[in-house]
Amino acid sequence: MSRDTIGVPPFPSEYRASGLLLHVTSLPSPYGIGDVGPAAVEWIDLLAESGQGWWQSLPLGPTGYGNSPYQAMSSFAGNALLVSPDWLIEDELLQANDCEYHSTNPSAVDYDSVVPFKHGLLERAWSNFRAGARPDLRPAFEQFCEHEAHWLEDYALFRALKEKFNGAYYLDWPQDLVQRKSAAMAQASEELAGRTHQACFAQFLLFRQADRIKEHAHRRGVRLIGDLPFFVSPDSSDVWADPDLFLLDERHRPRFVAGVPPDYFSSLGQLWGNPVYDWEALRRTGYRWCIDRLRALLAHVDVIRLDHFRGFAAAWYVPAGAPTAQSGQWVPGPGAEFFRAVQSEVGGLPFIAEDLGLITPDVRALRDEFHVPGTRVLQFAFDGTSDNPYLPQNYVTNTVAYTGTHDNPTTRGWFEDLPEDQRRNVRNYLRLPIGESSAAAPALMGLAWSSVAGLAMAPLQDLLNLGREARMNVPGRADGNWRWRASREMLAGPAFEDLKHLTDISKRTALVEEAVARNVMGASS
């Protein structure tokens, strides 16, 4: 396999690799939330030393109400909460005493205290930069603003207006700003110039640090999986700046909202509330906005997990105002035409399909036409039927096998909460001893790693064999999600030695070693 194709789907029959799922916010740090600084470097080193070739994170966009990474305020911007204070100190934009943070709960993100703390640091860094700190960065900052202007200017003004109107939903702003009337936009741009420049600077700092992380990962033979939500947040610069790309009414309010019908996670379905696309309008542009969105993420990662892949075949549209998702209907998506356009523009399809939920033959056909690896979650495998697609004997190589995802319970918590008949199915299949809930997560990891799937993945929580307290997200629950954090002690335990052994005996380390060797040879040649 050539250097250029290491770690790029589709996975050929000889490909075997593995990795861990951990959101950046969950990394340990003294600043109340994980970031793309030294802890991310240490995490990549730990992955490499454990024989892992992949680090998967959740979406990295700027979060709004509820702190969900799947409801970002922009498809192009990054979450400024992820800027590393340590590297701002290294860059002489902050002093160490600027960055003292006193956490009351190191095992969870306290967004109520982290958000003002991090924003205060970024404001101070911007003030120091304006006052003359690091003048050598000014050309790079100006180049960044020019290169990213196609989204950055709208996003920065959107953030500044959100601040001016105390975080109000943009549809509740004055109508001249909702409708982007030229006079109102010019006045706002002039009035809020200081705040917009600061927002641009925060993005510059974050992108600069993210580039450093990606370079380090590649040196260590680790590839990065990003995550792209299918829909965008209703309260986002995406919808505000490009309303013609969505099915909105004359007041810019969604005519339909996104969701899914009743499924494993909810008997009422899930009502996400996102505006839905006007695919005809997007088709007329050659899907330009969508392709720009993919390219923006691919600048920071190697492969993209396409969340809600089935939406490219058909998505569940619910009339705006409906109390549940049950009244929706399937509406066709862009299908193969979209992926042909992406392939032509991007030069490949470095994707993983999140093809969970109600998957119909048209979704499978679309996935397979473009050889996009599908997703298999072992927690869904034990209904007692032999043709269950999540059972390893039904996998193909071009598959990513997970023990669970960010939406699932931890495997230990899942096993403990199963009805007795299903717990018996799991015990019988995995040959687990009765009463040993601690054996479920290691057994599922062994099952994923030993399968024919080209890539085997597990959340860090499953490697650490954690219970209910470590769950990242409960679908359908509005509050209390996205908070779990790992401690340094957790990352120093023996679990990673066990992971290295499992990966070795499963023959999933060769490509990591090959990538590292080639990077070393490339650096010395």
Structural class: alpha/beta
**In percent, how much strand structure appears in the residues?**
5-15%
Uncertain stretches of 5 or more adjacent residues: 1-5, 520-525
How many whole angstroms does the radius of gyration measure?
Answer: 23 Å
**C-alpha geometry:** globular
Share in helix: 40-55%
Number of strands: 12
Strand order of the main beta sheet, please? 9-6-3-2-1-12-11-10
Mean pLDDT: 94
Q: What does the main sheet amount to?
A: 8 strands, parallel
Terminal residue distance: 20 Å
| H/I helix tally | 20
Description:
α1 (38-49) links the parallel β1 and β2 (54-56). α4 crosses α5 and α5 (149-164) packs across α8. The protein has 525 residues and is an alpha/beta fold. It has an 8-stranded parallel beta sheet with strand order 9-6-3-2-1-12-11-10. It has a 4-stranded antiparallel beta sheet with strand order 5-4-7-8, with no helix packed on it. The chain is globular and about 70 Å long. Helices cover 40% and strands 10% of the residues. It is built from 20 helices and 12 strands.
